[in-house]
Amino acid sequence: MTFKLFSAILLCARILLPKANEDLLFTDSLLTPDENVTISFSPPFIINGLASDVDVTCSFTRGQVPAMTSIFSLVIAHSSTTDQPLYSYVASVNALEGHAHNISHDVEVISGLISNQRESSLHIRFKYPDSNLTGLYVCEVQGFDQIGKPVTKYAKVRFIYAEAQNSCKLIDGYLAELDTQEEMDFFREYLIKMNISYYFWSGATKQNGSWVNEHSPAVRPLFDWAPGEPTNYPSGNCQCSYPRNDWKLTACLCNSNRNDLGYVCEVPDGC
User: Fold this and answer.
1) More confident of the two residues 65 and 37
2) Which residue, 44, 145, 149, 177, has most beta carbons within 10 Å?
């Protein structure tokens, strides 16, 4: 049996026309959804110790938003928190300089282009990414309308439990099912060795009041729960663990938006 370590990366696409005196931090308070701004990432998760890079691409076509007469810049920004996001700029490209540059030293700029006739885009790459890159990402477009009035729009995508399970399926695996003491000990030793400090999903859920494995529901698991767990909180129907409880299992919200929730995939031998 092989375990593979993942930490999901969460992304969103946004457009923002800020005031000239704004600094390098901003919040969600003035953002309005817009489907014409896109941000994509590849791969859709981080493989700690295995992934060499994660690519992020921000793009926008001015012709799809007639109210904007010209584009000045594209910026990618990041927030490590998802409940009350505070974004900091990572990289940008503007019409004056004509080339992209990084604001954060943790990123490599691949390409950048501002065009009022075709698609404008900004492509960056994180080398040897880790869990610090999880959170929310913004694609920010700065431009002008005919009278200089700002326009604010965005789109958002969040990472939830089902996406972790689906990501494991991409490598013919499933969320790790820690149903024996031997597996629990191996899991704990592995995460301690990797010096992991954030939460992790595992593969059991509460169904009809009982905890069962999603992939192997016929197995009668012997879970190593933390003291006081599992709680009877109505929405705590998924399973996770974290270092403060010595990696013992706890009940978690299935739709948790924590930026520090990673996951471990269990891959059968031969895959």
Assistant:
1) 37
2) 177
